[in-house]
Every structure is written in structure tokens, then in C-alpha cells.
Design goal:
heterodimer, A: eight-stranded mixed β-sheet, 12 helices, B: about 290 residues, Elongation Factor Tu (Ef-tu), domain 3, 2 domains, seven-stranded mixed β-sheet, six-stranded antiparallel β-sheet, about 30% strand
């Protein structure tokens, strides 16, 4: 891989040049403590030290609501493709969130490829940025604290410069656009990068033991812990909305007043919502809140492993931060494991 | 599924419904109609290759989509038949449509029955109530390819003769020598029923089954699975030779939207046909 460096004082000039590759989106503050990815309007608003954004970058590829078709009796179902080819550059994506996009890629590929998702993926460049974990980060446990691919460029802080890994030809185009800003890395830079990488692992406070978790999930399928958590959970679905690897969605029609025309939409759904497994005729396959909570954890840590070979969790800590009932995934897993806290 | 290239995989948008016309509606039992449907585009019609046990997503404009199993056999191409119960938003709207209306169809979805494995074996089809809807496709597939199957046995139970799907079609099979058609009802207040009475498992008394050379295909209410499986296991059936069609909320049909998950499988792509071995090893599979 091509590895370069850019001086921190040159970063703004580089970010401005990214406009040539699409609409640049960056992490900015929302309120006092929260962050969001938003369109770049003012370089001074970029938050390079952000912890985590409220919504992960999945919002660009699998939007909260998405119009799939316009329909009418005369024309049938016409694909709605506006905005699909709009170009973006998403700057400042953390390693965990890049892993999450790679997980979503697995889901939206497979036997039936979701072309809407992949068109959007293709049209958005990802520029990664390294980060400092806080007390809710457990990406190291989920093996998402470093990333080797899935980005066009990845920036890592090495003091007065960023080390820049070039992951794609598009990333190379970006570098060449402002060629003079990029320098070769020297031995000192490499030593600094390795030192910081090594130090990073000591910063994690949260940890989940992953290796035998699928078996433990099977063994504790009937555990009372699920009922206890079911009593705490409010079924609000906030954890699913902010989760970078949750992808469930609902599909429904909206009809014009003339009744003959309308649109078919897709919208984020949550397996915690009461009507999630409700079928016509009134049978609900998961009527109990505890069964829905269990299903969510089971699917992420057990079911997804069976389907795709890894858990659908990257340890970003968003669900911990957002849960109004203070349900903490680390604590849930430790309870299932029988670890005394 | 590589031997059956499906239309759904070739087209651009995985959610794209194609216009199809309702060309005939055949009344079945109360609140159930058999819709004969034909794609408007002949190219799409001829590319719609499916296998017994698969389903489609049916759109009624403005009300959304519902998963419906295919009741016709791929051996009779040109039209597809959907046996629909009037039960929810989409199906209520469907029942209100005038003849020749257009609906949207996408699919076929799901794994379907593993026909290649079933062929050159005995076939035991056990249906309860509405479970006949998907199994009718398999039944006619086998009858239309009669030389490719050894003994074919149908066991079908309904509450009353009035609640028996495809009754007249199936009654005609009773006299057909190359299929053993056993039909049973719980009760018949009119006193005209000439076939069997009692639960479907009672029909096992009338047949000899060779479990090593037989595949059983089941569809019906949860209670039926429980008792039929008990009978089959008593006869030493391998759990891999018991195939069951299961139902969940198949919303997208293409393994993305999550709604039909059971444990670590999606009913829409890993199923809806599961072996009993798979079923019993998945949490929350059989209620």
C-alpha cells in the first residue's frame, strides 16, 4: 500500500480540494456534546477529535427513508433513481465505522444484490481518520480498532503530520490533485506510528471476550437474563437506529389523493418494535419484549456469525450512549457469561 | 439454485415488481380465492422459472406487498396461480379488485423443494388446512413428472369438507391408480363426506411407508407438524428426509430486511423449506 504523510497545517487545503470529488461531508458538533456527519460549510467547524457521530455513515448508503418506486396504473412501478448518483466525500470516518460499512456490504450483496446501496457506495469516497477510544468504545474486542481496507484514504495522527494510507485509485487521484502537500514517510514517522498504535490498545476500558460467545449465546438461550433485560427495555428502537450494522427495513406504499398514483418507500425498522414480526391475521412471532431483546443480541452475536462469519457489531458504543433505559451491551454480555460485575 | 436462474437475480432493482394481470379468479373455500395471474410482458412471463415451494411478493398498488406461495406447478407454464386468504391489508385490497386488474409480482423467492433430491424416491405429502396451498405445486409437479417419482402419497386433512382447499380437484385423484390420495375431515355435519374422518395422522394406518426411500413434505398448522413428525420418527424417518414449509414475515423476500429471521436463518432465502433437522436446531423455529 502506498503510504504518505501530510502536515497538519496543510489539512484544510487538502479538504477544500476534495470538493472536486463530490460533496464533502465532515464530522461537526451538534449541541454541546454530540457530533454528526454533515455537509462541509466551514472548515473551522470540522471536529477532528470527535468521539462518535449520532448516526453512523450508513445514512448515506442505506438512508433512514428511501423512495424506491413511483407507481401508477398506466406505468407500473418505475424505479426512483434521483440522487442515487450524487457524489460524496465522507471525511473523518473512524475505523469501526469503516468495518461497519464492510459488514453492510456483505448484507446488501449475496444472492440478491441491492444495486441502490452499491450505486451509492460507489459514488461516495471514504476518508478514514484514526481516533482515541473513550469509556464506551469496545471496537478492540470486536476487532474493528484498525482497518486495512474499505477506505480511499486513511489518516492517522503521528504528531505534527498525518500518516496517509492510500487505499484506492480514487484515493490516489485525491492525493495527486494536491500533490505538493504530500511527502514520503521516513523511519521516524514509522516509529511514531507504531508507538501510537501500540499505546492505543491500553486506552480501552471496555472489553468483551468474543471467541466463544456464539456457543455461550446458544447455551444461555433460555437464560432468565433475557427476561430481566426485557423488563428494562422500552422497545424504542433507538439502538437499532444508531447502530452502524443494523439494516432492517420496512417497505410500504404512500398513495396520492387521486389514488391512482403513489410511491413505494423503504424505511429503517427495528426488531425491537412490537409489530416487527406481526403477520397478517394477527399472529406475532415475537410478541414478548424479552423475545425481541434476545433476538437482537442473538442475531448480532450469534446469528450473524453463522451467516457471515463475524458478529454484526463493531464496538462503537452508540447503543450504550443512546439507550434511555441504560442497557449496556457490555454488561448484557457479561451477565450472559455469568461474569460478576 | 444455480440450475434455476431466477428472474429476480437478473433484474436491476431487487424490489422491482412487474405488472401482471388477474385473468381468472376461482372461488375456493370461504375467504379464499385462487387467482390466475399472467405477466403483461411476455418476456418476463417466459423467464419466470420457479420450483414448487417458492413464493412471490404480491403488490396491490397503494397497499404494499405480501408474500404468497405459488400454488401452480412449473410444469404448467404461462400463468401462475396464487391461492390467497383474505386476511390483511394487501389481501383485502386484492379481493376488492375487479377482474382483469393489474397487480405487481416479484420473485420467485425462497429455496423451494429440493426437487433433484426428491426425484426417484417415494413422495409423501402431508398437508393440513391451508398448508395445501404451497404443496399443491409439488403434488402436480410430481404427477406431471410421474415417471420420475416412485409412490406418491397425499395425506390432507381439513376441519370440514367446506374448508378443504382444492377439494374437487383432489377428490378426482382418489380414483387415479398412480397416486394414493387420502383426504380426511374432522367432521361433516351434512353427512355427505365419503372419504376419511379424523386427524391427518390417522391416515398413516392406510399406507405402508419405506422411510429410507421416501421424502416427506409437510405444510400445515404448528400442531400438525408436531404430531406428523412424531409419526414419521416412529417409522424411523431420517430428519433430513422430512421437509417442512415454514412461514414468517417475508417482507423483502431477498434476505435483506430482517423481518423473517429465525435464529440465524432467513426464512425468505434459507427457507421457506427446511429439513426437520434444520428446524429443530433453530431457536424459535417451531412454536
Amino acid at each position: 500500500m502506498q503510504i504518505l504523510k501530510i502536515n497538519k497545517k496543510d489539512l484544510n487545503e487538502f479538504i477544500l480540494s476534495l470538493n472536486n470529488f463530490g460533496e464533502v461531508h465532515v464530522p461537526v458538533k451538534k449541541g454541546d456534546k454530540k457530533f454528526v456527519f454533515s455537509k462541509l460549510t466551514d472548515l473551522s467547524r470540522i471536529e477532528l477529535e470527535y468521539t462518535r457521530t449520532i448516526l453512523p455513515p450508513k445514512k448515506y448508503f442505506h438512508p433512514p427513508t428511501d423512495t424506491l418506486f413511483k407507481f401508477s396504473q398506466e406505468e407500473g412501478y418505475q424505479s426512483f433513481t434521483e440522487e442515487l448518483t450524487k457524489k460524496y466525500v465522507i471525511f473523518g470516518v473512524h475505523s469501526c465505522d469503516i468495518h461497519a460499512l464492510k459488514i453492510l456490504d456483505l448484507v446488501f450483496a449475496g444472492g440478491f444484490v441491492d444495486s441502490r446501496y452499491f450505486t451509492r457506495r460507489k459514488n461516495a469516497a471514504i476518508i478514514g481518520l484514526d481516533c482515541t477510544p473513550d469509556d464506551k468504545c469496545f471496537c478492540r474486542s470486536m476487532r474493528a480498532d484498525f482497518v486495512e481496507d474499505g477506505f480511499d484514504l486513511f489518516l492517522s495522527d503521528i504528531g505534527s503530520s498525518y500518516l496517509v494510507r492510500v487505499g484506492t485509485g480514487r484515493g490516489d487521484d485525491m492525493v495527486r490533485k494536491t500533490k505538493s502537500l504530500f511527502k514520503e514517510v521516513n523511519k521516524k514517522d514509522i516509529a511514531e506510528y507504531k508507538k501510537r498504535s501500540d499505546e492505543k490498545k491500553n486506552l480501552f476500558k471496555a472489553d468483551i471476550e468474543l471467541s466463544d460467545l456464539p456457543e455461550i449465546m446458544d447455551l444461555e438461550y433460555e437464560s432468565k437474563v433475557w427476561e430481566e433485560i426485557g423488563k428494562e427495555c422500552l422497545s424504542c428502537g433507538s439502538c437499532s437506529m444508531v447502530c452502524p450494522t443494523c439494516y432492517c427495513y420496512d417497505v410500504f406504499d404512500e398513495v396520492d389523493l387521486d389514488v391512482n398514483h403513489g410511491i413505494r418507500k423503504k424505511q429503517w425498522d427495528s426488531c425491537l418494535f412490537k409489530d416487527y414480526a406481526l403477520v397478517a391475521g394477527g399472529h406475532n412471532f415475537r410478541a414478548e419484549r424479552s423475545s425481541r431483546v434476545k433476538n437482537r443480541f442473538f442475531h448480532k452475536q450469534r446469528g450473524f456469525v453463522a451467516q457471515y462469519g463475524r458478529p454484526s457489531c463493531i464496538g462503537c458504543g452508540r447503543c450504550i450512549e443512546v439507550c434511555p433505559a441504560n442497557i449496556d451491551i457490555i454488561e448484557v454480555i457479561n451477565r450472559i457469561r455469568g461474569v460478576k460485575l | 439454485m444455480s440450475t434455476h436462474p431466477t428472474l429476480a437475480k437478473e433484474k436491476k432493482d431487487i424490489h422491482q415488481p412487474f405488472l401482471a394481470r388477474i385473468i381468472k379468479v376461482l372461488p375456493q373455500i370461504q375467504d379464499h380465492l385462487l387467482f390466475q395471474i399472467k405477466f403483461e410482458d411476455p418476456g418476463i412471463a417466459s423467464n419466470f422459472i420457479y420450483r414448487p415451494g417458492q413464493f412471490v411478493e404480491l403488490s396491490v398498488m397503494g397497499t404494499g406487498e405480501a408474500p404468497i406461495s405459488i400454488s401452480s406447478s412449473p410444469t404448467r407454464p404461462g400463468i401462475i396461480e396464487l391461492c390467497v386468504r383474505k386476511i390483511g391489508r394487501v389481501t383485502n385490497a386484492l379481493f376488492g379488485l375487479p377482474m382483469n386488474s393489474l397487480v405487481g409480482i416479484r420473485g420467485p423467492y425462497g429455496n423451494g423443494f429440493p426437487i433433484e433430491k426428491l426425484e426417484y424416491n417415494n413422495l409423501l405429502i402431508v398437508a393440513g388446512g391451508l398448508g395445501m396451498a404451497p404443496l399443491r405445486s409439488l403434488l402436480w409437479y410430481a404427477l406431471d413428472n410421474r415417471t420420475k417419482f416412485k409412490d406418491i402419497i397425499l395425506m390432507f386433512g381439513a376441519k370440514t369438507p367446506d374448508e378443504m382447499l382444492f377439494k374437487y380437484e383432489l377428490l378426482k385423484l382418489i380414483n387415479r391408480p398412480d397416486v394414493k390420495c387420502l383426504l380426511t375431515v374432522d367432521k361433516d355435519e351434512e353427512g355427505i363426506w365419503k372419504a376419511h374422518f379424523g386427524v391427518v395422522t390417522k391416515l398413516f394406518d392406510y399406507v405402508v411407508i419405506y422411510p429410507a426411500e421416501t421424502y416427506a413434505a409437510l405444510c400445515g398448522p404448528p400442531i400438525m407438524y408436531k404430531f406428523v413428525i412424531k409419526e414419521l420418527l416412529k417409522r424411523n424417518f431420517s430428519k433430513d428426509r422430512i421437509l417442512m414449509s415454514l412461514e414468517r414475515k417475508m417482507k423483502c423476500g431477498v434476505g435483506k430486511c430482517g423481518h423473517c429471521s429465525i435464529g440465524y436463518k432467513y426464512t425468505c432465502i434459507d427457507g421457506p423449506i427446511f429439513t426437520y433437522w434444520d428446524a429443530m436446531n433453530l431457536p424459535e423455529m417451531i412454536e
